[in-house]
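User: I'm writing a short report section on ligand binding and want a predicted complex to refer to. Could you take this sequence and magnesium ion and write out the structure as tokens? A short remark afterwards would be nice.
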Amino acid sequence: MSNIKVENLTKKFEAATAVDGISFSVGPGEVFGFLGPNGAGKSTTINILCTLLSATSGRAEVAGFDCASSPDEVRQAIGIIFQDPTLDNGLTAYENLLFHAYLYDLDRVTARRRIAEVLALVDLTARKDDLVRKFSGGMKRRLEIARGLLHYPKVLFMDEPTLGLDPQSRNMIWEFIRTLKADTGITIFMTTHYLEEAESCDRVAIIDLGKVIAIGSPAELKAGLRGDTIRLVAKDNDALAAEVRERFGMDAKVSEGAVTLTVERGEEFLPALIKTIRAEITSVNLTKPSLNDVFLALTGKSIRDEEADPNNVMRAMARSSKKRGH
Ligand SMILES: Nc1ncnc2c1ncn2[C@@H]1O[C@H](COP(=O)(O)OP(=O)(O)O)[C@@H](O)[C@H]1O
Ligand SMILES: [Mg+2]
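Assistant: Sure. The structure tokens for the complex follow:
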């Protein structure tokens, strides 16, 4: 039994294949994260699942209903929190919720009860009569989560729910997510490009250039790396990498101004490495596996740097258009 089932889903826009034949399923009560850099295809996937976009090919099913043939049933079963805020700033928190309740045909009594419930859940009861215009980013996000829960959805979709929020608001939202999961058993599907956020999910699909390149619990994904990451910087990184390959028979990669290699028990290997190597090393760094390392191992680039460096986005676009034969 799964609450979300996606088979070979593809979405082509004129200029790009945003989603490229992905498949996965999400069970009841799971917090499932879609992790990937900007432009990976996360929002496109979520929009198809929410019936806001139609797929080019493949199938998507939510709460047992087909997204293409039964969009109304799907919409009744889901709550959505979009990447960009969609609250009415000119209304109070309460009015925003009431408007949503009308859209979902809740009667007056039910609406009043549920609005009180969700406001309490996100800790905004005291601010319910304030104009949303006066809310901080974190408060607006909490109100949007409250709104998404008003009609008791089976599946809650959140597109980058904590994007741009300060760490405190981010933590608070994660507390709500955990409470929700424990109290209601709701399925949560969220996209993120924050690694810390993905670490908190039950399972994660890593998406890049429209493809799911790995899927599993954070622990499973990291276990696949079998080891620690050693980052070395030398005057001549290419020469260092060549030396490591030659002397240790290891797969040393040069990227982002450093040589990286994966070893088991890095702390034992590192002293031997440094003693043996002739190249002049200027910096040494040992880290236990993170989801970023999983991404790095699979794609040769880092989620974080992709975000910071627009050239990487350009390169990614060039790669994907080359692949399509342009
Ligand atoms: N409506 C659209 N028309 C054309 N291209 C789009 C549209 N929406 C998204 N894309 C493209 O599809 C790719 C994936 O975008 P998106 O799903 O928004 O990625 P993410 O949410 O992971 O950042 C990008 O290359 C983006 O430019
Ligand atoms: Mg997006």
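A remark for your report: The chain has 13 helices and 14 strands. Residues 306-313 have pLDDT under 50 and may be disordered.
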